[in-house]
Amino acid sequence: MIREKSLKIIPLGGLGEVGRNMMLLEYNEAVLIIDMGLKMPEEDTPGIDYIVPNINYLSSLNKQSNGWRNRKQKNILGIVFTHGHYDHIGAIPYLIEKIWSPSLQFFASPLTRGIILKRQEEFPEHPQLKINEIKHGSIIELGPFRIEFFRQNHNIPDNFGLFIETPIGNILHTSDFKFDLNPVNELPTDFQKLRTLSEKKILLLMSDSTGAEENGHSLSEKTIEKNLEEIFQRSSGRIIAATFASLINRIQQIIFLSEKYGRKVIIEGYSIKNNMEMAEKLGRIKSKKGTIIKGKEIENYPDSKITILCTGAQGENQAVLMRLAQKRHARLRLKSGDSIILSSSVIPGNERTVQALKDAILRQGVKVFHYKMMDIHAGGHAQEQELKEMIKIIKPKFFIPIHGQYSMLVAHAEIARDTGMPEKNIVIIENGQIIDLTPKTIFIKRTKVPSNYVMVDGLGVGDVGEVVLRDRHMLARDGMFVIVAVVDKQSGKVIGSPDVISRGFIYLRESKQLLKETRQQVIKIVDQAVTSGGMINWIYVKDEMRNKIGQFFYSKTKRRPMILPVVIEV
Ligand SMILES: [Zn+2]
Ligand SMILES: [Zn+2]
Prior knowledge:
binds zinc ion
């Protein structure tokens, strides 16, 4: 084998944004993939369900997958998953078919594996994924890479950092993490392990930046439980806790507290029920026999003995909490005396939805408790003090901040500088950039790989592009205007008066003059097209309608509706 002198590191998502984490390590045409996550849609992507990484760099290379003989062909060695959050595993159903081959290897912890496979059940037409289970201390060899998994605390159990030996040097990838001396239902941070890894000399550290802009130390899971307990102490009616289906630690804490205060727990919501059952089977969530009861058993207990655990912390439309607030839930209704625990750290772009949700809940005489830590990203990530400590323990030669908005990456780079790392050894990169790493140097290559948004809309992946989005913006802002002109094939004249349909632009009945002038313009455009040559170019006519009518509307209304010309020849 030819030994190359450098290793490429290519983030396809998650650097410069929160979500859709995915990274490639490439050596000698062989590629290791770390995570494959999705991102929730934003305010400026109307109608989009999810945003996933662009994997054109991989899929175009993998197309002729009958053998790796082509020297240029890259070989996807396998995919390792750090933990079971959707921003690390959620894109699998939308991307896996593009790179799948029977020999593709997957590696994940038991809980992560369980969450992935449960989700795959919703896609029965997909190939069966064979996922190898790894645990703390597992070592796997994939091509030129030797990967050791080590446990890291977060807000979900079974989260693993990666110690990767490569021909160029050792790389440490922290996964999402925080240092936690008092976790819930799992072991505290293993500093000794980190020191042992550090002794093997780390060439490059890639560390989670999500909490880099927060000072001090993140809250221990035990402290978070204590804070939640205050709400239990103050509530006399039912407690309704809204969270995320994969925020396993919060689910566990709510169950513990319910047991402590003699409450039975009802789990509401498809995804949370699924995750709960699976995590319980794997021993990652514990509950006493009889704590979890079925929805219909609720009548057998007084309100003070009931906890309802459900989805909808971010006001998701189809989630249980929204259905409760809007009285759309099949069995349950809110009532005065209920206490709802809601996340107050609203994802930007969701503010108005969550505000409306809150108001709808309060109108029903229900108490609302805000607790930031009900959110998936809150409370799970190392902050300034811990990030500094991580760098000091690992003592890497080079440092790349990963996972986070650009401002978070910059804050994390500053933290690294504060520990005394030389400026030139700290590199901030964003999605699509390529890092060239050698034992002595690190630099960003001039070329980039595609990393733009790939949007999932219903069942389609990537069929919504910039054009579709632009149309959605246009429709949302200025509405649409349809012109139907029936034209005599022989004479080239418009028959009768063109029909018009307006939606979201002007109210037709109150705009008679404007419509009259519009119709005259349409007739004129068709007439001119006919006289300018024997044959009529209908594409030209439609373009003219769009342009001229568009300008005309703008001059009269200062709006630019989407114009859809329809020409029917008879
Ligand atoms: Zn996470
Ligand atoms: Zn994450």
